[in-house]
Specification:
Elements lengths: L2 E5 L4 H12 L3 E6 L2 H11 L3 E5 L5 H15 L4 E4 L11 H30 L1 E7 L12 H21 L5 E9 L19 H13 L4 E4 L3 H10 L2 H6 L1
Parallel strand pairs: 1-2, 1-4, 2-3, 4-5, 5-6, 6-7
């Protein structure tokens, strides 16, 4: 039985990851800001769900919560850094960017450090980060969001290199979804190749099981990543 902690577990991809892993007889540690949603999910999953209410940007508290949750579960095998925010158009630009950086960059990096240190002491483990196909893009319409996803992917690449230089079996898996049905994407317009959440998560779990370095969800989004790399900068500047 694997012990898995998932941040951002109250909705969308995080919630579906919890449900599917629990159905495989895994212990799932669920972290989110909304206590009532965590309690609902625990009631749905049953005794192999363990919950903690946490705002991951509270870095002083987060480490203690991660450690306490792992101890209650009886260990930790996989840490899934799924908590993140999307493109916010309803608040002031600087507030939106600041929130994106705090959640998608600072909290992500802090969680990555915790997991790496934990697995170093343990001798094995897997860090999974939820990036995006947007990591290949840069746009005036979502400057902080695309930059944060680029940070996540590059950060995981660096930690993967670190993992190869330590005496521990640590896998670092970079998941790069395209459009997946969730609360975060519900109001987005102009989406295409939109994957059902259960289908997307099934592919994610397969990639995690196979200890992939990186994976595009769904697979066709690799084509967009390749196209983005081949597109000259002057074209992006005109979009």
């Amino acid at each position: 039985m694997k012990n898995i902690i998932i941040t951002g577990a109250t909705s969308g991809i995080g919630k579906e990851l919890a449900i599917q892993y629990a159905s495989r007889n895994c212990n799932v540690g669920l972290i989110g800001r909304r206590t009532e949603k965590l309690e609902e999910l625990k009631a749905q999953i049953g005794t192999n769900a363990f919950i903690r209410t946490l705002d991951v940007t509270n870095l002083e508290t987060a480490k203690e919560v991660y450690e306490d949750l792992a101890e209650e579960m009886g260990g930790l095998d996989i840490f899934i850094l799924n908590a993140g925010v999307g493109i916010a158009k309803t608040i002031a630009p600087w507030r939106a960017d600041k929130n994106t950086i705090e959640v998608n960059v600072l909290a992500f990096a802090h969680g990555c450090h915790f997991a790496f240190d934990y697995f170093m002491k343990q001798g094995h483990g897997q860090i999974v980060g939820m990036s995006s196909v947007a990591s290949h893009l840069a746009t005036h319409q979502a400057t902080a969001y695309t930059a944060s996803k680029h940070f996540i992917s590059n950060y995981m690449t660096g930690f993967r290199q670190k993992a190869k230089r330590v005496d521990a079996a640590i896998t670092v898996t970079d998941i790069r979804p395209g459009f997946v049905k969730s609360e975060m994407t519900a109001r987005n317009k102009g989406m295409f190749w939109v994957a059902d959440t259960d289908k997307a998560v099934l592919q994610m779990i397969k990639a995690i099981d196979n200890k992939k370095n990186r994976v595009y969800i769904t697979k066709r989004w690799r084509l967009i990543a390749i196209l983005a790399k081949l597109t000259p900068q002057f074209v992006w500047d005109r979009l």
